[in-house]
Amino acid sequence: MIDLHTHTTCSDGTDRPRDLVNKAIVQGLEVLGISDHDTTSGWEEATQTLRGSLKLALGAEISCLTTDGVSVHMLGMLFDPNHEEMQQVLEETRDGRLPRMRKIIEKMRAEGMDISIEDVEKAMPVGATMGRPHLADALVAKKIVKSRDEAFIDLLHNDSRFYVSHAAPTPVEAIALIRRAGGVAVIAHPFASHRGQILKPDDFADLVAAGLNGIEVDHRDQNPDERAMLRVIAQELDLVVTGSSDYHGTGKMNLLAENHTSREQWQKLESQADARRVVNA
Fold first, then answer.
1. Secondary structure of the chain in HEC code, one letter for each residue
2. pLDDT in tens, 130-143
3. Phi and psi (nearest 5°) for 96?
4. Tens digits of per-residue pLDDT, 175-186?
5. Residues 73 and 137 in one domain
6. Cα separation of 191 and 223, whole Å?
7. CA-based Rg of the chain, rounded to a whole angstrom?
8. Residues 177 and 130 placed together within one structural domain of the fold
């Protein structure tokens, strides 16, 4: 099994990188992709833990905004971790998360919710990239909601009155950056309509022109019709089709490798990086 999209405590997952690697080994995965939000900080620990036949496809999930304000996530995999421009963009995107969080909290407090930035920081693992899931955890701790899922369904989705946009590259800029850094770009869950605004089929032409390599088709947040439409788009544009869990540990219901990528599609994707960067034990 090949699962190319997972998260650790370095962003909004609940498993340390070493624990996620251990789970992947126990579960018999062939390739594990670790793609924390806007950071590569978990790569070293994951690599040090690697053993046996498991391989790592290391990357990052880059937060993007289209020119008309649609939130998009771009999976960059197999890029050079020492690429200065990539690390600078990831750092700038992370730096924008704190003021964004303060604005969301300000909106919530205006409606009488007893929540603070200190509550969010208390809910974060050491070294994690701040995100809405940590706010959800803080809301759970304050008994404002019962679970992360309830927080996102009721309060934190992209169409919520509490939503605040963030400074981020456009999807086209992110793809071009990933390719300059030698990696491959896969757009994550582009038709996950329950998250809020989504891309339209016509939007993919510009992404392909920028160098898009693949589409995450099989994902629990995309229904059968959405997956079927994405398969047609991928076939027409000669893009790799991936399936992934988007595993977050106990932070989401998603199970490791509940969706996965075929070996044939993975080999096609991996061959499009500018160097062989899959990590072996």
1. CEEEEECCCCCCCCCCHHHHHHHHHHHCCCEEEEEEECCCCCHHHHHHHCCCCCEEEEEEEEEEECCCCCEEEEEEECCCCCCHHHHHHHHHHHHCHHHHHHHHHHHHHHCCCCCCHHHHHHHCCCCCCCCHHHHHHHHHHCCCCCCHHHHHHHHHCCCCCCCCCCCCCCHHHHHHHHHHCCCEEEEECCCCHHHCCCCCHHHHHHHHHHCCCEEEEECCCCCHHHHHHHHHHHHHHCCEEEECCCECHHHCCCCCCCCCCCHHHHHHHHCCCCCCCCECC
2. 889 899 999 999 99
3. -80, -10
4. 999 999 999 999
5. no
6. 9
7. 18
8. no
Pairing of strands 71-77, 55-65: antiparallel
Q: pTM of the full predicted structure?
A: 0.88
Q: How far apart are the C-alpha atoms of 93 and 261, rounded to whole Å?
A: 28
Q: Is the same domain home to 82 and 184?
A: yes
Residue 20: how many CA atoms within 13 Å on its side-chain side?
Answer: 36
| CATH code, 232 | 3.20.20.140
Type of residue found at 167: A
Contact of 188 with 216, CB cutoff 8 Å = yes
